[in-house]
Specification:
Rossmann fold; 8 helices; eight-stranded mixed β-sheet
C-alpha cells in the first residue's frame, strides 16, 4: 500500500509535469504542422526562402511544402541513408534542394553518432543514453559546413525567411557559424532538450546569444506561442521543447493563439 508521503510526492510530481507542459516545456509542439504554422504566423510576410537544418527523412520539408507550394527549401542532412530517402521523396520538386552536409561552426569533417543508421537521434556528439537502454555505437564520417559559407556561395547572401534547426544538441554550435547570415534571418526555430545535456549547452546560452543579436524568443506551448521576456533558471528544462527566435529588425505580426508574455523584453 502506498504511504501518504509517497502519494503526495507522486501527486506533486504530476502537478509539476502538467505545469511545465502547459508552459510548453516538454511539449515539443507534438505535430510538425503546429511547428510550421507557428513559424508562418510569426513571419512578417509570406516566406520565399526556408532552411531546414536536420532534415532527417523530410517530414518537416514536406509540411513546409504543404503550407507554401512555391517556397524555396534547402534541406541539410548528413546521414547518407537519409539523403537517399530525401532525394527519392522530393525528386519531382525542383524547389527543394537536398544538401548532404551537417551545419556546424566550421567547414570540414566530423563523425555522426547514432543508435542506428538514419536515426532521428543522430548527433555529432556521442550521447550517453544507457539509462534508456540506447547505445550510440553507430558511426558515420560526414562533411560539415558553416552556414555563412553556404549562404554566401549558394544563396548569394539573400534574405532568409525561415530557419528550422533540429540537430540534437548542436544548434548553438551551428548558430555560431551563421555569421552575417543571422542578421538576414527573420524567423528561426530550434529544439532544446535532453541532447543539450550531452553537449553541455544550456538555455541560458541561447538566451544571451539571441539577446546579443537582437532577437526575441518565444516558446511553443499547447495554447500558442509564449514570449520569453527574461531568462529564468527554471527554463533549463531538458525535455524536448521548441523555441522560435524573431529578428527584432522586422517585428512579427500578432500570432493566432498567442498567450500573455512572461515579461518585457
Amino acid at each position: 500500500m502506498m504511504s501518504r508521503h509517497d502519494f503526495l510526492s507522486k501527486f506533486a510530481r504530476r502537478i509539476e509535469r502538467l505545469s511545465a507542459y502547459a508552459q510548453g516545456k516538454g511539449y515539443n509542439s507534438k505535430t510538425i504542422r503546429r511547428e510550421v504554422d507557428s513559424m508562418f504566423q510569426l513571419s512578417t510576410s509570406p516566406p520565399q526562402l526556408a532552411i531546414d537544418i536536420g532534415g532527417n527523412v523530410g517530414d518537416y520539408a514536406a509540411q513546409l511544402r504543404l503550407k507554401s507550394p512555391r517556397l524555396e527549401i534547402h534541406t541539410f542532412e548528413p546521414s547518407a541513408i537519409n539523403v537517399e530517402k530525401l532525394e527519392a521523396r522530393f525528386a519531382d520538386d525542383p524547389n527543394i534542394k537536398i544538401v548532404p552536409l551537417a551545419v556546424s561552426s566550421v567547414s570540414g569533417t566530423s563523425t555522426l553518432f547514432s543508435n542506428r543508421p538514419g536515426s532521428k537521434l543522430g548527433s555529432l556528439t556521442k550521447r550517453r543514453l544507457d539509462h534508456f537502454n540506447v547505445q550510440f555505437n553507430v558511426q558515420e564520417s560526414v562533411r560539415t559546413i558553416r552556414f555563412e559559407d553556404y549562404w554566401m556561395s549558394e544563396l548569394d547572401e539573400r534574405h532568409v525567411d525561415l530557419v528550422k534547426m533540429d540537430i540534437e544538441g548542436h544548434e548553438l554550435v551551428a548558430l555560431s557559424g551563421f555569421g552575417k547570415a543571422l542578421r538576414e534571418t527573420s524567423v528561426l526555430q530550434f529544439e532544446f532538450g535532453g541532447s543539450n545535456i550531452d553537449t553541455r549547452t544550456y538555455f541560458q546560452d541561447f538566451w544571451y546569444f539571441f539577446k546579443s543579436n537582437n532577437f526575441a524568443l518565444f516558446r511553443l506551448t499547447p495554447f500558442g506561442v509564449e514570449r520569453i521576456g527574461r531568462y529564468r533558471e527554471s527554463d533549463e528544462f531538458f525535455s524536448a521543447t521548441n523555441y522560435v527566435a524573431i529578428n527584432r529588425r522586422s517585428p512579427p505580426r500578432a500570432a493566432v493563439g498567442t498567450v500573455a508574455p512572461q515579461g518585457a523584453g
